Amino acid sequence: MVLHDRRQRAEVDQLVEECTVQGMSRREFMRRSLALGLSASVAGALFAACGSGASSSNTVDLLSVWGGEEQASFKAVVAPFTQQTGIKITVESTRDLPTVLTTRIRGNNPPDIAILPNPGQMQQFAKQGKLVALDSFLDMSKVRNDYASSWIDLGSYNGKLYAIFYKAANKGTVWYNPGQFQSNGYTIPGTWQDMITLSDNIAGSGKHPWSMGVSAGAASGWPAADWVAQIYLNQFGPDMYDKWVAHQIPWTDSSIKTAFQMFGQIVTGTNYINGAPQFILATDPQTASFLPFENPPKAYMYYEGDFVSGFITTQFPNIQPGTGFNYFPFPTINPQYAGAVTVGADVVVAMRNTDAVQKLVKYLETAAAQEIWIKRGGFTSVNKSVDVSTYPNVVAQNVAKMLTAAPITKFGADDLMPSQVETAFWQATVKFIGNPSQLDSILSDVENTASQAYTS
């Protein structure tokens, strides 16, 4: 649960302060937290903020959003580290990491290490002086050997490295059924116009070329924001992309309008998406990803990040990577920016500078540590020293190769924007899908939000 109400946030901060200064039983803390509307998981994570601000010399307190299978995989990663060093890793997990982390920082009790879901938060905490510069103890020649300069730049602030990109998501992937493409004589498109031509051909034969779903509760619209960001980067390049993210151009700029209009070619294409726009707005992204792989298929292409492979293999456990499902790279729009990829990632940052923290960060940076999770599945690394053969199948291998070789890499635009602008962006895509003719007023509304957010 994310705390949006200022009064509620103030009450939570006061509760944590009371717990920290005066002491409080877990039962009493949980009772009062639940009364404030917090979930049990968030309350439990906040209770940890009441503890001692210092970790023991052989313990590292790590905060992340990883739960379930992801947390199990991470514990498998650090098990040999603990065995070799004797340093114990205490892993706390919360789905409301920004709230928990901010509260702990205010209480002067940050975790030793945090796994942040985007570099935007890293930039914020680095600016506030809350992070340890990793280049103060990492072997930077090794880091430069392991990571492309674009990834080092993404993890840096004011010329210092503050984050290691650990678990990445490639958002330059379009998913399709190879068997259906082959039997129908479809050719993988290399350019945007090729993709539109293919879509027209499929639609003209009475079939639906695309599936899309953007329903995600309060976050509805984020898959469409990924579409717009990937289009923008491929059309206008990294410099303009950075200006857009930093609000150095208004949302009413012709470049942003163009990106929305190109996305609109897919959303409004005749017979492109069955039941559009209602189906798009009412369907979640995971369900929408299944359509090209049903028998018979209900669509032929689906755009989203490489995590879609997990959706597909879970829904269709007997499907074979490479033959039953595959992806092709997002097609070229402007040849000058061919191969540009938007990404998502979990990043490792240090909030305390101890010997144990330094040892763990050095370990997590290595290919050997990352390969443990890779073998378990559900993990893409951008570390160039990782053995590609470690990935469990050919599709995962190719996704990783594509990421490490990408000439231009930018984090998803919405996650780099202030939270209120990110939400406005998501809402704008939803409104646009429902009524594309209102694009000018839709973008003006986002600009009004951005004008306030970037100056506050």
Which helices and strands appear, and what pairs or packs with what?
Blueprint: H1 6-22, H2 26-35, H3 40-47, E1 59-64, H4 68-85, E2 88-93, H5 97-106, E3 113-116, H6 119-127, H7 140-146, H8 149-154, E4 156-157, E5 160-161, E6 164-170, E7 173-176, H9 178-184, H10 192-204, H11 222-245, H12 254-267, H13 278-282, H14 285-289, E8 301-303, H15 308-315, E9 326-329, E10 341-350, H16 355-365, H17 367-376, H18 394-405, E11 409-411, H19 413-416, H20 419-434, H21 439-453
Parallel strand pairs: 1-2, 1-3, 10-11
Antiparallel strand pairs: 3-10, 4-5, 6-10, 7-8, 7-9
Helix pairs in contact: 2-3, 4-17, 11-12, 11-20, 20-21
Label the CATH architecture of the largest domain.
Answer: 3-Layer(aba) Sandwich
| Helix percent band | 40-55%
Structural class: alpha/beta
The CATH homologous superfamily of the largest domain is named Periplasmic binding protein-like II
Q: Quickly count the helices.
A: 21
Low-confidence stretches: none
What is the residue-mean pLDDT, rounded to a whole number?
90
Query: In one word, what is the shape?
Result: globular
Integer tally of domains = 3
Give the end-to-end Cα distance, rounded to a whole number of Å.
24 Å
